[in-house]
Amino acid sequence: MLDLRPTLRVALPVVKALPECADFSRTVSPFLPQLYDLPQRVFDNINNLEALQHVYLSTNPLITALGFSLFLTPIVFIVAEINKNYSQVDRLWSILPVIYNSHYALWAHLSGLPTQRLDHVMAVTILWGARLTFNYWRKGGYSVGSEDYRWNIVKDYAGPAAMFVLNIVFISLAQNILLFAITTPTYILLLCSRLTGDEFTFYDSIFSKLIFAIVLIEFFADQQQWNFHGAKNAYKATAKVPKEYSYTREQLDRGFNTSGLWAWSRHPNFAAEQGVWLALYQWSCSESETYVNWCFAAALSYLILFQASTWLTELISAKKYPDYKLYQERVGRFLPKIATGGMDAPTANVNAVSQKQQDTRKNVKATGSTRKR
């Protein structure tokens, strides 16, 4: 009978103070060699469940998660190349972080470590994943042959050879590693729990509730967008403003949502999405008593990815909708522009601008110059 609770020093670093839990050279680097022989250990015991449990518990949990992300990389690459469909990682986006954070909680439970903090992380991550999975499903993301419309733009611009390289380096490899990396703060929380025990502190409660609140914002943003496009489709079909929705003809004619949360942010769902993983990162900083730790690289990479993808999204929207550039001027990309208000705000500011333009034209006609006397 194998011992399913091997000595923790085989799988975890020895830490004596909370800041040490966020020290990369102490908590990650020494365990990287485990990654090299992990595939062979799994293969050798593939038919022995008890032995596989031993391998699982005697391997650093961060290394196991990293190994799984690398295992997925060639699979999604091959599937993408066979089908010439580059949304394979998109389909896993809402699932993989749930797997990783659940893995940390499971590993801690099986190893006899304090788990209350990790259980909360797992719970809010499951809620996050359920919301995103449902929204992706109802938009047809899991339908056979479906692909993010932005990939067609990239394919037309890059060409087959560049797309092949992009698929290897970014789509299949970098994105898979990123989805693993954004959950690494949970590893720090796991290490901290060994020192602090199962006490759920005030700050733990704050961060747990904050992430839950951000997920709620995402839910409302998604639903508002879904409602708008439902109303827009009905409006296109009948040329009548649907009574079951609270949109005006002007709003529907624009073609894009400018109401609710979308009146304050051009991408409230994207803003909240970034907020979830920033909050988890800050949770690890708070718990480890550090201002910055190595997980910052993942959080920053996530922000950069969303900046790039949002830029492409808006480039397409600005060409498709005549009023979108005005929307960009009046509403912030992620955070509100308090001074300008939304597209559907009282028209006093708009009228004032219009009046100023008319006065300028009159002044030009009268004086031949826009210079004030």
TrEMBL record:
It comes from Paraphaeosphaeria sporulosa. The chain crosses the membrane at residues 62-80, 164-190, 202-221. This is DUF1295-domain-containing protein. Residues 351-373 are annotated as: Disordered. It comes from the Eukaryota. Keywords: Membrane, Transmembrane, Transmembrane helix. The keyword Transmembrane helix applies. Pfam families: DUF1295. GO terms for cellular component: membrane. The keyword Transmembrane applies.
